[in-house]
Amino acid sequence: MLLRPLLDLLFPPLCHACKGYIPIKGAEETPPQPFICADCLGKISFLSSPLCTCCGAPFATANGVDHTCGACLSHPPFHTCRSAAVLAGPLQELIHRFKYGGKMHLANPLGLLAFQRLEQFLGEAGGECVVPVPLHRKRLRQRGYNQSQLIGEVLGKKLRVPQVVGNLRRVRWTDPQTGLDAGDRVTNVKGAFAVRDPKALAGKRVLLVDDVFTTGSTLAACVDALRDADVAAVLAVTVARGLQQ
Ligand SMILES: [Zn+2]
Ligand SMILES: [Zn+2]
């Protein structure tokens, strides 16, 4: 009975976002994963229906039911995509610290958050392997880790599917997408990815994982390479989605 309070004293459950103490109601209760307090969770705009059934973009419909958006109707994408929440507030700060501040341990709360919010999509998607969006080896050396791979690891464990690293590769150095408009983003990453061993992925339902969806151009370039490798389907998942106003 006293174990829980003792553990809390030694290892207080703190919110990854605000560093505040997460109160535990019952003595036996374990702290709520993914260690983000109710206050911070309340400030995260989670994405929910109505969404585009293909690209996952939120858009208002009269009856609140999911539909295919105009862009996906005119150019049906090979893949479907979902993101857990809007890139803003505490989630944006968490991702920034995770990606640029060396806080690798934040992969766990971010991956769990994506898993919990996208559990239905992930369950129905039937992904047979996780493929993270790769970094160019120069960027990997600079950062020391691939943030998408760390999130992919969490998702793969939860879904009990293997993560395939090193097959989808970034074969060309690209400038950061930040600051580029949608058209330049597409040109910047076009042909930047390739699959080294297509046979290993052919016929598989691939769960493509990235941390952030901005315009979707990076994901689309990865999808092109995976489609060339004859995968059966690409189900893309990102933790956050930047919404263009
Ligand atoms: Zn908090
Ligand atoms: Zn769409």
From TrEMBL:
InterPro entries: ComF/GntX_DNA_util-trans, DZR_2, PRTase-like, PRTase_dom. It comes from Geomonas propionica. Residues 6-73 form the Double zinc ribbon domain. It comes from the Bacteria. Belongs to the ComF/GntX family. Residues 180-242 form the Phosphoribosyltransferase domain. This is ComF family protein. Pfam families: DZR_2, Pribosyltran.
